[in-house]
Structure formats: C-alpha cells, structure tokens
From TrEMBL:
It is found in: Cell membrane. Residues 9-213 form the ABC transporter domain. The chain holds residues 341 to 553 of 553 of the full protein. This is ABC transporter ATP-binding protein.
Length: 213
C-alpha cells in the first residue's frame, strides 16, 4: 500500500506572529511526528520552540498554515478532550490550592486513588508522598517538596490522564545532575508507549529524531 499513516502531530507551512503587525516568530514551518515517535525540537533561544507548543495546545491560531493533531485543527479541540490527549510539562510547576492529590488530579475526581498512586509511582514520587503525615491528603505548601520533587509531581500530573502525547518543555533545566537523572528516569516511564515531543537546547537531553526549527 502507498497510503501513508496519519501523523500524530503535523505543522503545515506555519507562519505565526503574536500580534498581527509584529515580528514573525515562525516562518513557513513544517514537520510531522508519527504515533509512538519520540522527537526533540531544537533551535537557538528565541527560535520559537515554546511557541510551537502553545500552538499545539490551541492557545493561539497560526496566521498561515495548519497545526494539526491527529488530523484535527489544534485550535478546535474541545477543552474537555485536552487532558487525555496531551500532557504538558514545563520548567516551572504551577501549584494549585489544596492537597498533594489535588496537584495530581487538578480536582478531577473521576481519577481513582489507584490511578493517582500509579501516576506518583511513574514519577518516582510515591514513597516520598507516603512518608508525609497525611500522605496524598497533605495540604501543599511551597516547602513540602524540593525543586526536583515539584518537577516529578508535574510528571505525575501529566501521567495520571494517560495522555497520548507528551509535550516537554526544557523540563530538566536548572536541575543538578542527580535530580536531572531522576527526572529523566521518570520521563522514560511516563513516555512508554506514547508520542513525545521534547524541547531542549542541551545536547545530552535530546531524545529521538531532532527537528530543527
Ligand atoms: P528558549 O529556548 O529561550 O526557551 P524558544 O525557542 O522557546 O526560546 P519562544 O519562547 O517560543 O522561544 O519565543 C520566541 C519569540 O517569541 C521570542 O522572541 C519571544 O520574545 C516571543 N514571545 C514569546 N511569547 C510571547 C508573547 N506571549 N507575546 C509576544 N511575544 C512573545
Ligand atoms: Mg522556550
């Protein structure tokens, strides 16, 4: 058969500026990522790597061209589908008011405790959480975890929804070597069987095929 598999993610000739009259950030950018592929977006600082993620997340529409996820316009994907479609992990963790469990579920109580524990296990954070006085019901303050542990918690938050696609933006930046290794191990578990696009400008953190933008 000559029929081509549908890419999981595809940018077709995308041109984008944050405001109509401002400088173009992306110029006729095209690439495809197939289901199950793990790729790294690479490019100098300011090249527009994080901007590509914002387009995939449906936060902006391109001026020209198409941003497609499973053949659908990323901007048209309903909010309620997004969590099971993709997990987005960035450099900083955005803590929500509430417990450790709330950080993982984002208050979605359709997740069972078993799913929450499994997500924490994937992140390598289950033992740490169980040592807290109230475990998953411990109220989260900024002090209860270290920087690396917050980063692991953001992996648990993404993993709980078992998303088909992981978008990882410089998630090991600013971590010491040992913590970076822990985060990379957690990622390896979280990425299993998924399509993964990661952003890095550090060569040792690049995985899979490199897409230069
Ligand atoms: P880095 O490697 O430093 O993270 P990047 O490749 O991720 O860089 P982007 O964050 O996508 O780059 O930024 C690309 C350009 O778009 C930069 O010049 C940046 O200043 C600009 N930019 C980013 N966000 C906005 C915004 N919300 N409004 C206007 N301009 C923006
Ligand atoms: Mg960036």
């Amino acid at each position: 058969t000559t029929e081509e598999e549908t890419p999981f993610v595809e940018l077709q000739n995308v041109t984008f500026a944050y405001e109509d009259d401002s400088r173009k950030i992306l110029h006729h950018l095209s690439f495809k990522v197939y289901p199950g592929e793990q790729v790294t977006l690479s490019g100098r600082t300011g090249a527009g790597k994080s901007t590509v993620f914002k387009l995939l997340l449906g936060l902006y529409q391109p001026g020209e061209g198409k941003v497609l996820i499973q053949g659908r316009d990323a901007f048209q994907i309903p909010e309620k589908e997004k969590r099971s479609l993709y997990g987005y992990v960035e450099q900083t963790f955005h803590r929500v008011p509430g417990t450790v469990k709330d950080q993982i579920t984002l208050y979605d109580d359709s997740f069972t405790m078993e799913e929450v524990r499994e997500a924490a296990r994937i992140a390598g954070l289950d033992a740490t959480i169980e040592q807290l006085e109230k475990g998953y019901d411990t109220l989260c303050t900024s002090e209860i975890f270290s920087q690396g542990q917050w980063q692991l918690l953001s992996i648990a938050r993404a993993a709980v929804a078992k998303p088909k696609l992981l978008l990882l933006d410089e998630i090991t930046a600013n971590l010491d070597a040992q913590t970076e290794e822990e985060v990379l191990q957690a990622l390896k578990r979280a990425a299993e069987g998924r399509t993964v696009i990661s952003i890095s400008h550090r060569v040792n953190a690049e995985i899979g095929r490199i897409i230069d933008i």
